[in-house]
Specification:
Blueprint lengths: L7 H17 L10 E6 L1 H6 L3 H14 L4 E9 L2 E8 L5 H23 L17 H19 L12
Antiparallel strand pairs: 1-3, 2-3
Helix pairs in contact: 1-3, 1-5
Amino acid sequence: MPTPAPDPRRAAMITVLVPLLQASCPPEGGGYGGSVELRMPDQEADELGGASLLRSSLRAAARQLGWKVETYAWVGTQHGTMVGVVDRRDVPAPFAKAVQGDMARRVRAAVDRVGRPDAPAQQPSPTAGADPHVPTTAFRVAYEKVRHEVAGPRGDDSSTLRA
């Protein structure tokens, strides 16, 4: 059975995801401790190639950064499709305090969002990964730009990206 042709959307997604993954790492964390979760309506995820293509793209982008990855994908949740990647590498001692502090801030922010939905907003999070809406919005904007660049001046992307 022949190998299927690679989906050109995947390369575009990887290009977009690498900087988002880098931005999710805590400052002074040496590039460790990053994670990104994308949340979108199921239909949007399907138009982008489905949860499996999004997950594969996240995994490939994270591996380009040398991450030991853990990925997940859920379709049909109350938030639609949720796809994410987490860096599971052991953190060297010089960066451990920064990564642990960032993880504590992320957990606190998540608990506040779930446990106290009417609570006033906390101080801005130091990394994009602490707010699930930031990476998804940034991904959408950057992917559209890359998708149109790949499509060329005619704007006809039927032979390249069909997202």
